[in-house]
Design brief:
With 342 residues, the protein is of the alpha/beta class. It is built from four helices and 40 strands. Belongs to the transferase hexapeptide repeat family. LpxD subfamily.
């Protein structure tokens, strides 16, 4: 889809300097810009590229004044970075503006479908499913019986949502996400063999939850696994049964949270963090990458290490960790001197 400089300026409330009829059909970084592409300049260190870029249109701050000849049409705005972000969002909405029901798709007669929805080919919509307005379900997705998906949520290709789970409004579930698989519940019998404990709860995602590709969230044994409003989960994260994650907490890739742990609001958790089960993690906690959490954490703590401890203490200790061979050598030499003097 092509847009002229004049149309883009209208979307961004900007001013065109140059050819207002020039068209673009793609976006690019300023240093890689080509004819027919749009880019932006906000970071001063990239200023030299505006004189060499081949991008047809460049968004700049109103304060920008070229010091030599440029070959790109400018769109001047109050804040180039925010304007480009707005344009990305607009471009994404246009690109994803699909509607209707593709065939083949299985939709149960008892399912209730909202207005202006999209259901991609080879999707399965089970019994008594409720789908809100403006929901998009991309191909090869599975929506189990009694699932509720509220307005304006996007389910990308290959997502699996098991029965009885609830997905709020304005959520995004990326490809390969699995919501509501059985929790890891087994008990040993007298022969030492493991017997499965039925997992009869569900998963609840509140509004504005984003979940990265191939992340799994297990259903509760009883009750619900709950992901609160505004939570952002990266790719390849494991959330176990009966976990609760507080509002606006963000978790990076390859983190695992064991069963029944409660994580507070506004937490920031790095990649490859391991959190044991039945813990309480307070609000505003920050956990550095590859940390291991095996005990309750109070509000506002910053942690690192495995097992983790206070971030400042960890940094001080790290100085000694990396010098351990030298420290050991010095101790051995001191012991020899002491023995020699006796």
């Amino acid at each position: 889809m092509n847009f002229t400089a004049e149309q883009i300026a209208g979307i961004l409330d900007g001013e065109v300097v140059g050819d207002s009829t020039i068209e673009v059909s793609n976006l690019s970084k300023i240093e890689e810009g080509k004819e027919g592409e749009l880019t932006f300049l906000s970071n001063p260190k990239y200023t030299p590229y505006i004189y060499t870029t081949k991008a047809s249109i460049t968004i700049v701050n109103k304060s920008f004044k070229p010091e030599k000849q440029i070959h790109t049409t400018l769109i001047k705005v109050d804040d180039a970075y925010k304007a480009f972000s707005k344009l990305l969002e607009y471009y994404n909405q246009v690109k994803m503006n699909k509607s209707g029901i593709e065939q083949p798709a299985h939709i149960s007669e008892s399912a209730k479908l909202g207005e202006n929805i999209y259901i991609g080919a080879f999707s399965y919509i089970g019994n008594n499913v409720q789908i809100g307005d403006n929901v998009k379900i991309y191909p090869n997705s599975y929506i189990g019986d009694n699932v509720v998906i509220q307005d304006n949520t996007v389910i990308f290709a290959g997502v699996k949502i098991y029965s009885d789970c609830i997905v709020g409004s304005y959520c995004v579930l990326n490809s390969g996400v699995i919501i509501g698989a059985d929790g890891f519940g087994f008990v040993p019998n007298e022969e030492g063999e493991y017997t499965k404990v039925p997992q009869i709860g569900n998963v609840i995602l509140e509004d504005y939850v984003d979940i990265g590709a191939a992340t799994t969230i297990d259903r509760a044994t009883l009750g619900s696994t709950i992901i609160r409003r505004g939570v952002k989960l990266d790719n390849q994260i494991q959330i176990a049964h009966n976990v609760e994650i507080g509002r606006n907490t963000v978790i990076a890739a390859q983190t695992g949270v064991a069963g029944s742990t409660k994580i507070g609001k506004n937490c920031i958790i790095g990649g490859q963090v391991g959190i044991a089960g039945h813990l309480i993690i307070g609000d505003n906690v920050k956990i550095q990458a590859q940390s291991g959490i095996g005990k309750n954490i109070k509000d506002n703590e910053v942690l690192q290490g495995s097992p983790s401890f206070n971030y400042s203490d960890w940094n001080k200790s790290y100085i000694h960790f990396k010098n351990l061979p030298k420290i050991v050598k010095n101790i051995i030499e001191l012991e020899k001197k002491v023995d020699g003097n006796n």
